[in-house]
Amino acid sequence: MLFYDDSYRNSEIPELYRHDAEVELDLGCGNGRFSEEAAARFPQRTFLAADIMMGRIRKCTNRARRAGHANVIPIRAEARLLVTTFLPDTSLNRIHILCPDPWPKARHRHHRLICSEFIGQIHRVLKDDGEFHFSSDDQPYLETVIHLLDISGLFKRDDSRLAEISDIKTDFERRWLDKGKKVTHCLWVKQPLHFSGSGH
Ligand SMILES: C[S@@+](CC[C@H](N)C(=O)[O-])C[C@H]1O[C@@H](n2cnc3c(N)ncnc32)[C@H](O)[C@@H]1O
């Protein structure tokens, strides 16, 4: 993992944001358009903008600097490693995974970010009542994600919470819309874990 901005070097992620602030993760942020626009709209929130590609993180950093958004923290990191290893329990208010690579060919499906195990990690790092926002132009991937979230029992869908950001379009969403494709957004709210006490 790497911070493009040297001033963050040697920091642990939780040291980077105020703990009384709301913290959001834009995972696979690309050039960072979502984080930049959301950071302008919600200056009191912190946006961790993470992507595996250094070129994209560089653009995201330059974009945030130009706009003067100190509340965007670009991070070059592999998504699973970042979430499973570097983010503590109940540390985020929102996770956005927007237009992730759909890996449509059956033999490539294992590359998809969202799977049951990762949904458990998303639940772990979200605060109580935290939100998971997902969008895709790929209907089969979308249906799989909806199904996995549904059977997990860990989240409740509430798309009404998308209202405050529904007009923000990422670079990939703009690309798909320009091609006449439909991009669907869904939002789930973290539910508390319930353990059955019977033991038998
Ligand atoms: C299709 S683009 C979407 C970018 C942005 N969210 C948008 O909607 O414009 C997918 C992004 O996820 C990043 N990505 C793919 N696999 C990743 C991984 N394992 N960890 C972190 N980022 C990843 C890619 O580098 C790329 O920027």
How would you briefly describe this protein structure?
The chain is an alpha/beta fold and 200 residues long. It is 32% helix and 24% strand.
Q: How would you name the oligomeric state of the polypeptide chains in this document?
A: single chain
Q: Major sheet: size, sense and barrel closure?
A: 8 strands, mixed
CATH topology value? Rossmann fold
Total strand segments: 8
Q: What is the CA-CA span between the terminal residues? A: 44 Å
Beta-strand percentage range: 15-25%
Classification by helices and strands: alpha/beta
Strand order of the largest sheet: 1-4-3-2-5-6-8-7
Label the overall shape.
globular
Count of runs of 4 or more consecutive helical residues: 6
Could you describe the 3D structure shown?
By secondary structure, the chain is α/β, with parallel strands linked by helices. The chain contains six helices and eight strands. Helix 1 links the parallel strand 2 (22-27) and strand 3 (45-51). It has a single domain (2-190), classed as Rossmann fold (3-Layer(aba) Sandwich). Helix content is 32%, strand content 24%. Strands 1-4-3-2-5-6-8-7 form an eight-stranded mixed β-sheet, with helices on both faces. Bound molecules: S-adenosylmethionine. Residues 28-30, 51-53, 56, 78-79, 98-101, 170-173 line the site of S-adenosylmethionine.
